[in-house]
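thread: overnight batch results

M.L. [08:02]
morning all. the overnight job finished for the chain we discussed friday. pasting input first so we're all looking at the same thing
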Amino acid sequence: MRSAILAFTAGAAWVQMQPVLPAPATLAACAATAVVGFLLLRRRGRRLAAGVLAGLLLGSCWAALLAHLVLRHALPRTDEGRDIAVTGVVASLPHRFDGGVRFQFDVAQTDTPGATVPPTIILSWYGAIAADPSRVHPGERWRLVVRLQRPHGNANPHGFDYEAWLLEQGIRATGYVRPADRHNQRLTTWSPDTLYAVERARGWLRSRILAVLDGKPYAGVIVALVIGDQRGIDQASWDVFNRTGISHLVSISGLHITMLAGLAAWATSWLWRRSFFTGAALPLRLPAQKAAALAGAVVALLYVLLAGFGVPAQRTFYMLAVVAVALWCGRIASMSHVLCLALGVAVLRDPWAMLWPGFWLSFGAVAAILYACSRQPDARTRGWRAGLMVAARTQWAVTLGLAPLTLLLFGQVSLVSPIANAVAIPVISLFVTPLADLVLGVAHLAMVLLAWPLGWLSAPALAVWTAPAPSPWILVLAVAGTAWMLAPRGWPQRWAGVAAWTPLLTQLPDAPVAGRFDVTAFDVGQGMALLVETQHHRLLYDAGPLYAPGANGATRVILPYLRGRGIGRLDALVISHSDLDHVGGAEAVLTTIQVGQLISSLPPAHQLLQKAPQPGRCTAGQVWNWDGVRFEMLAPAMASYASLGLSSNARSCVLRISAGSRAILLAGDIEAAQEAALLRKDASRLHADVLLAPHHGSGTSSTAAFLQAVGPTVGIFQVGYRNRYRHPQKLVYARYGAMGIERLRTDEHGAVTLSFGPGLDVATYRETHARYWYGR
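M.L. [08:03]
and the structure it wrote out:
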């Protein structure tokens, strides 16, 4: 059974790595093969082989089938960007943000003739609704005029795959409500449905908590602990939680669900056994053990529904449900069977769950605990000492067991996690969470008191160890060493398992050899951000756009990439000019990792200059060499800083990077006038193999004369999908094509990686990491 479930999971995981889904006919053939093979192998006594074969084939068929069912609901490209009237129901807890609310919408009917809208979409409502976001509640039926687009997200190494998340949620279009007030109207205040009722209850609880804790710094944490909605926690708090390794506690976690279910089971059992005093004699009708199991499972289900049914909560509920069923049937299964059954149910219900870190960390933590704590406590140790030893060994197992996996998923491991969890687990589990359900003010005070030691622990630079995401062979070796170190007492030389960690502990970030350089042009939407790497140095050119308060190109794209690569320092940060699509993530970069110097054309009063080490201006004529690679600033001229009427675009830092005969030109947002000035000064210095299209390919840049002087073979357009500026302009884009320049758009190709050496190697993320849900 266990091997079959693991094989089923592996089969489903294989599908999520494919660029194209198997055809329905292929799925039917695989399913038939699985059944026939299972029967033949079992008849010959090969039960293990039969289970593994059937599991692999059925897991892949099931995952592919569900994917086909979701993908069939597609928004036609002809319906992108046009006004469509729809009628439907608000299906999720609305999320408030600066400027409006965002919510999931179940479409009941499309009122615009000829338009096709998927059954589930995500909408943002800006404008008038922002003044009163409480106007939108789950379960309400609305008629809205919307403008939609097909699922699209940034595609970068080590980044969040928004398109995969939308697929998992069954959402095949996103968009916003048009400001057509006379056409946007609420039809009914309630649509009968169990899921809508749950979401309405969650919304009511959230509003009550926020009303009581209005203005309190950790109100968002209390909301997360009560209903599992973590969107109200600010970025500063998340930084502390992540650096101390307690982010798993800031939600309705498995520990909290188990504790509440256990309390319900104990109370039910206690009352059930004492029902003789009332004359009910309930144990004669149903054993107290079965009644307790049923009560615990029901309470766990209700709490999990309240949590939004996340993966950790699912895993806990499935395990508790399996135990409850086993008690009812009189067949007590081993914990490994319980864990595997919970795994099978989770994958059966949601084959995409394994794409997210929470899936692996949740099941990995339980597996590590079961493996390391399988032996019975020493009979000589009793009372509180035994409990303390079990708690210490459990924390040791989780910390050590998940370290390789955490490095793979996040590129860092909290070194203060054991201490932080030793403090946070009892405080949050025994005080904050129960009080949050009863006395909000006291619960918040407990959280405030806990925040002080957590902030102190997270402050040192050594609180977190950063390393590159391990390769598969390094990960397998480290997991084997971890299993050796966590083995039960009596296992020979358990300390020797640390030797298998040697490659994990000693790996360094990849870097080009001397005389070569690599460039990564990130997919940050409508903005710019490129990482330049030489053998021993790294430079970031621009830092992406500002999406919303606390969300920018750095927090969503650049910093996760740097962590995944094990890069903890930048030698220079170049900000071409002050527009938000270039400077939006700069502050996050400066406050998160070490930066040697800031080079920019920012005005003297810009707040970023006050936070930067060694701020300096970019001016034409600046030249430096790193590891055999030449960096030359071609613009702006020093005199441009004295011209008050000059736009920020015209003062963009233009940087040419070259090694041998290979070069790239980063032109910022310069326009035709600045291009002409560069041509007049020295057109021969502009030649480059790769050109970052000036001003994202706008109609005011990339003149024919400029392109002829640069003579690139590759042009990169860093643009957002269906951006409002319509970059790149059609005429400009066609001009690149007519001159034989290969055109790479980040909205279509994802992040672009270039390696400059004797030749030029170009790779795009959506090609090297092709997945069936990209639909390219």
